[in-house]
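Revision sheet: C-alpha cells.
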Amino acid sequence: MRETALSVPVKVWATACAILGVSLTANTLLTCLLALLAFCQLVFEKRWRLCLTFGIFYLALALLLYLIRFHGLRMVFFSEFYVLMFYNLMPVFLVAWELITTPPGQLSAALSKIHTPTPVILGLLVVFRFFPTMKAELKGIRQSMKNRRLTGPVQVLRHPAVTCEYVLVPMLLRCLQIADQLSVSAIARGAQAPGVRGSYYARKLQLADFLWMGIWAIGIILFFIIGGIK
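Predicted:
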C-alpha cells in the first residue's frame, strides 16, 4: 500500500462531497473548483497516470465548451449537452474512480469496521472490480485473436458475426469461471463464518486523512458560497 494513499472513509467522504456539490450547485461551470480539489487529492496520492489521463480529457472538454460558447462551434457526432454533462460530472468521476480502484482488501476492511452486512460487502466488491476485470479479460481475448490473425480489417468486414462470436464466447466462459472462483474464494476466506472478522488491511485514520476530510468539508462550503445553491 502506498504511504501517501488515503483511507477509504476519506475517499467515500470526497465522493459524497463531489456528488452533493455537482447536484446542488447553481453554476455548473464552477464545478471546475471541485475538479481542481479532486486533482489536488490525486497529486497528493501520487496518482500521476490518473491525473494525466483525466487531465487531458478535462482540458479537451473545457476547450470544447469555450469554442461552443464564444465561437459558435456545432458538433455533428457529439452533442453539446454531453460536453457540458461530462464537464460538470468530472469531479465525481475523479473521486469515484479513486474509490473504485482501491484494493478490495482495504474496501472490505473499512466496510467491516462499520458493521456492514457481509452480502453488501461482497456485492460492492464485485461491482467495483467488474470493470477492471472485464478490461483485463478483453485485453487477453484481443491478444489471443491477434495471435491467430483474426483481428484484421478484411476478416472483420467479411465476417462481422463470426468476429463477434470469437469475442463473446470466450468472454461468457471467463465470466462463468470468474464467478465460480469468486464463490470458492469467498467461502475459503470465511465469508459465511459468524462473528467478527479481522483483516490484514485494517488501518486507523491518520493525520493526512483528517486533513483531507477537513479540506473537502471547507471546500464544499466555500463552493456553495461562491456558486450558490439551486
